[in-house]
Amino acid sequence: MNERLEEPTTKEAIRESLPEPPSEPAADEKTIPWSGPAWLRLAYMFEFLIALVTIFTVWSQVGGQGHLDLMAWYIKLGLSLGLAWCVVRFTAAMVEHEKAWNVHTAMWLAWMVLFAAAMGGVTYYYHIHEVPDESDTDDTSSTSVHLPAWGDPTDSETVLHLPGMNVIFPGDGTNG
Question: Beta partners for 45?
Answer without folding.
Answer: none
